[in-house]
Amino acid sequence: MATIQQLVGRWRLANTKGFDEYMKELGVGLTLRKMGSVAKPDCIITCDGKNLTIKSESSLKTTQFSCNLGEKFQETTADGRKTQTVCNFIDGVLVQHQEWDGKESTITRKLQDGKLVVECVINNVSCVRIYEKVE
Fold it and tell me: pTM score > 0.90 for this model?
């Protein structure tokens, strides 16, 4: 089972499946979905004890949030949603749960075959994004 420290580092998007459908289910407009589908972001994860920071960096946009594991916080997502979010590290998986306007989404990050596998789920729509370690 992975430790949170094994998720730390810079990861580059290598493969994605179902991202447009996921963004559509979130309510993201067509223009922003088209931009999101061509972006190849790096995901930079740092963790100092309970303090977690996740940064998504691309030529189109950079977003970042920091939180304490297990504590709810307000997140402004890349598409501008204001969510109540909580992150936990459970059984080798980093789980990020977002709630806003009566909706909810869960994003999980885990190591699989040396790659960072990110699964995003809202309602019955999911997407998988696979990142490879850069540093």
Answer: yes
